[in-house]
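I am writing to request your help with a piece of structural work I have in hand. The matter concerns a single protein, recorded as an amino acid sequence and a row of backbone structure tokens. Could you please explain, in whatever detail you think fit, how the structure tokens follow from the sequence? Thank you for your consideration; the sequence and its tokens are set out here:
>
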Amino acid sequence: MKASVAIQVLPHVDTDEEVIRIVDEVIDYIKSTGLNYFVGPCETSIEGEYEELMDIVKNCQYIAVKAGAPKVSAYVKISFSPDGGVLTIDKKVTKHHK
């Protein structure tokens, strides 16, 4: 694994229920990629190859708009190491969830 991203998708909609529905569709898309991911209360982390992750980040915006958001903002954190060796989700959080 050469990269990890954390993405928070913020659909600009009128109700919390709509935010949750649209974000759930984005998370379903992330799940469908088959990559390792972790859903947190404010963002979702995904591990994989850099180019693939950048495509997923881009597609998350399109998924939110297709789901009904007239506008969407996103916060993205990227950890990239061309030679590999990025800290994994498991190394970062497993000890806190036992």
Remarks:
- Helices lie at 16-32, 50-66, 89-93.
- The first helix runs from residue 16 to 32.
- The longest strand covers residues 3-11.
- The chain has one domain: 3-86.
